[in-house]
């Protein structure tokens, strides 16, 4: 009997501290950094983001998201035999945030590891979990995107610090005989490492190089719109489907203009797109599972529907997953 993987529960977590554009604009103005609500809304669609308090880590946000996902799936933490965390803001250099999260959940004993593919990290993690469940390597997985990007932002750089936020999303993926994930498509092009990166590293007990996020926004934008369209079409082709089969596009939430462009290229009306970038900002690997959970809990995304998830970011790395909920 062929094995498939299927989502049986989702959850998410936003830290309580919410900054509207007005809050952020006045905080930045106090430091001599000039920006405006108008610029942020017009260029990105972002109106607010959440920032974690000091002492809160990605695993803490992931823990809340995982507990909600487990509850939705009707499972206990002890049922889980695989945890994959997509993050670029891990709790520490090592061990993995997945191991820390596993212990906080009380789910010790199964496999646990992190995936680092920046904003496409959740797509990578989901594709890897799907492959492992299909081969029988695991049966019940938690796939998590958890980020605290506020820690790696340069609040003197207005071109980046207004874009990102903190949060986590999680889903339970279970193996079984009914298809859930239909196809996935992953890519990277390391020629573009320098256009979106945190170039610092740890050596000899010190951080060497700049440990804050750098981005050539326009270069990322131009590449993003092309590769997202390609990945969506490649994924549909693998599943022998067309864009008209998609009930919901659940894209990485970086910029409303990128989201609109992707929807347009797939000939999907914006009514079929889950948008959270306005309220969450760009939460990197957390943005897709946050948007998915938001769509499900708001009653719009329903069992039996076909979803296209897709993301792109630092690397450049990108990918898409097509699934039946
Ligand atoms: O999640 C990973 C993937 N990341 C992305 O997908 C991000 C992709 N890139 C983008 O979303 C957009 O490129 C940005 C939102 C980052 C920037 O938007 P843009 O329309 O490409 O703006 P720009 O970089 O061309 O800058 C336009 C102007 C510049 O001024 P001049 O040179 O025209 O005078 C900037 O200095 O806007 C200025 N600017 C700002 N002004 C007010 C840049 N940031 C700000 C700001 N407030 N925060």
Secondary structural class = alpha+beta
Average pLDDT confidence is 97
Which kinds of small molecule does this entry bind, naming each only once? oxa(dethia)-CoA
Characterize the main sheet: 5 strands, mixed
Going across the biggest sheet, name each strand in turn: 1-7-6-4-5
Question: What does this protein look like?
Answer:
With 325 residues, the chain is α+β, with helices and mostly antiparallel strands. The protein is 33% helix and 26% strand. The chain has helices at residues 21-29, 37-44, 58-73, 97-105, 121-134, 158-161, 217-238, 256-265, 277-280, 287-297, and strands at 4-13, 17-20, 48-51, 82-86, 111-115, 140-148, 166-176, 181-188, 196-197, 201-203, 206-208, 214-215, 248-251, 306-313, 317-324. The strands form 5 sheets. The protein has a 5-stranded mixed β-sheet with strand order 1-7-6-4-5, sandwiched between helices. A 4-stranded mixed β-sheet has the order 8-15-14-13, with helices on both faces. The chain starts with a strand and ends with a strand. Oxa(dethia)-CoA is lined by residues 35, 39, 43-44, 119, 158-159, 162, 217-218, 220-221, 224, 254-255, 258, 282, 312-313.
């Amino acid at each position: 009997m062929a094995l498939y993987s299927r989502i049986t529960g989702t959850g998410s977590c936003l830290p309580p501290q919410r900054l509207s554009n007005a809050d952020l604009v006045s905080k930045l103005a106090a430091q001599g950094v000039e920006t405006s609500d108008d610029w942020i809304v017009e260029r990105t669609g972002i109106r607010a983001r959440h920032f974690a308090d000091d002492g809160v880590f990605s695993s803490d946000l992931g823990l809340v998201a995982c507990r909600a996902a487990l509850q939705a799936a009707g499972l206990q933490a002890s049922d889980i035999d695989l945890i994959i965390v997509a993050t670029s803001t891990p709790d520490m250099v090592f061990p993995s945030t997945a191991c820390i999260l596993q212990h906080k959940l009380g789910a010790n004993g199964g496999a646990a590891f992190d995936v680092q593919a920046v904003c496409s990290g959740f797509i990578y993690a989901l594709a890897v979990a799907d492959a492992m469940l299909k081969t029988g390597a695991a049966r019940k997985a938690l796939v998590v995107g958890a980020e605290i990007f506020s820690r790696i932002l340069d609040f003197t750089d207005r071109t980046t610090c207004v874009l990102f936020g903190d949060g986590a999303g999680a889903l339970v993926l279970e193996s079984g005989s009914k298809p859930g994930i239909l196809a996935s498509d992953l890519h990277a092009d390391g020629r573009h490492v320098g256009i979106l990166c945190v170039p610092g590293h740890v050596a000899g007990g010190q951080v060497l190089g700049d440990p804050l996020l750098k981005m050539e926004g326009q270069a990322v934008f131009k590449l993003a719109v092309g590769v997202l369209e390609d990945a969506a079409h490649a994924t549909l082709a693998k599943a022998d489907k067309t864009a008209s089969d998609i009930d919901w596009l659940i894209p990485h939430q970086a910029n409303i203009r990128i989201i609109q462009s992707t929807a347009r290229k797939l000939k999907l009306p914006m009514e079929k797109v889950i948008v959270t970038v306005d309220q969450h900002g760009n939460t990197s690997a957390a943005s897709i599972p946050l948007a998915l959970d938001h769509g499900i809990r708001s009653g719009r995304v329903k069992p039996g529907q076909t979803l296209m998830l897709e993301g792109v970011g630092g690397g450049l790395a990108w990918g898409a997953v097509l699934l039946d909920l």
